[in-house]
Amino acid sequence: MTRWAAAGVAVLAVAMRIPGAVRDAFWQDEVSSAKVLVAHSPLSAIRQVARVEATPPLWYAFGWLANAIGISPEWYRGLSVLAGGLLAGAVVLLARRVLPLWASVAAGLLVAFGWQFVDHGRELRAYEFLALLSVLLALALASRREWALAACVVAGSLTNYFFLLGVLAGVIWLWTEPSLRGTRRRLTGVIAVSLVPLLVWSPVLVHQYRGHRFTWIGPFSLRRMLEAFWLLFVHRLPTASFLRESLPILLLAAVLAGAVVLWRTSPVARLIALLAFVPYALESLAWLAGVRVFDTRNLVGAGPFAAIALVALIARLPRPVAYAAAAAGVVLATAGTIAAESTPAVPYDRAADGLVSEGWQRGDPIEAVGDFFAFRSPLEWYLPGRPQLTLALPSQGTCASIYAVVAGPANQRRIRPLLASERKVGPLLVGRLSLHQPRLSPRGHLLAATSPRPACAALVPESQIVSRLH
């Protein structure tokens, strides 16, 4: 019965992720991943990972091999979809070791329909794979299967650095659980040996960290820290101010209380409690100390265990109340995700097609009104020939044509009088400017190909882009 329930939850998880994986264009971070996958050689792919990513190389190595045998980056998204299904099913199997079947299914459904899991379960990134490997790590530790433990640690540590926080939680469990005295040294040795491949990669890790890949996270924010578990499962914070201030904290307290319940239950339950809170606590402390690593998606490996902890608390309620509370939690997470999925993603692919239909040629600059980085990478990917685009500043020369991509209704109202032709592409306005010299709106930035260079714009060196934007 448990396996059938896990399979059913897995199917529902896959069904939730497929539409977005098929429909949505690549966004900024996905384009970065896609460029690694289409690199002309394995060495250049690894160099690309070291230069622009903040993760180890395993996900990209699989993707490069997939592209080499004809599986495009768009189809490689399917691995995230599959990982999402396996993740939801594995949560049911893990939870069933410590909870009744109905509660295990509820935990699996929270992961199947929770926002961050659905969001990352249909994109060209490794976060869903990270969450799956974290649950498989727990299953391997609980069963004490050395080969499975070794495989999980090797794969997880080479997929995402935050997997190491789960490994640390597992080591803490091995050395604090009295029932493991006879096996803790052997299993710890398996973990240590399995981390050797990451040790080989560690010089690149240092290089990536020195590249300030996490500076966008910003300084410590207590509010963001308290909201993290809520945003793992629910797409948005409540709109009412009282609920926005209180509900995320209540959910965090419920997960903590559930972890306490688990801690008092069994050895496997104590492992789940550690896997839920060790990553959260360490990331929070690191952020407080000034290391900018705390982000909701970086907690996705702890999320499945937080779901089990939450349901463990609910399962202690009287049965009718517990059923209603579990159903309400699943409905809340599902409703938020469905609402988010019903809002179309920015159609960068169609925007690029619209520019081409308006007459865009490789040497023509594009006035992007909105987030410069949000536009830059996707347009590079979807425009013909995949030009290398960079920030440009207006110069005294003239161009045969200048084009515009505009986000936001207010910006579109300001730009529309300057357009010689236009078309609406989802929430974006795409068109050709009637000018031959750039006349930037307050939020506009010029995007220009590095070759051929436009006559009406001067290219900004890559090292100066951020300072120029600010």
Could you walk me through the main structural features you see in this protein, from its secondary elements to its overall organization?
It is a single chain. The chain starts with a helix and ends with a helix. The model has no long low-confidence stretch (mean pLDDT 94). It has 470 residues and is α+β, with helices and mostly antiparallel strands. It contains 21 helices and seven strands. The chain has a seven-stranded mixed beta sheet with strand order 4-5-3-1-6-2-7, with helices on both faces. The chain has helices at 2-23, 28-37, 42-52, 58-68, 73-95, 101-113, 115-120, 127-143, 146-157, 163-176, 184-194, 196-210, 222-233, 241-263, 267-288, 303-314, 319-342, 348-358, 372-382, 409-415, 465-469; strands spanning 366-369, 389-394, 403-407, 419-425, 428-433, 444-449, 457-459.
Distance between the termini: 58 Å
Shape: globular
β-strand percent reads 5-15%
Strand tally is 7
**Proportion of residues in helical segments:** 55-70%
What pattern of helices and strands is seen along the backbone? HHHHHHHHHHHHHHHHHHEHEEHEEEEH
Mean pLDDT across every amino acid position: 94
Biggest sheet features: 7 strands, mixed
Number of domains: 2
Identify low-pLDDT runs: none
Strand order of the largest sheet: 4-5-3-1-6-2-7
Number of helices: 21
Instruction: Return the structural class.
Output: alpha+beta
- Radius of gyration over all CA atoms, rounded: 24 Å
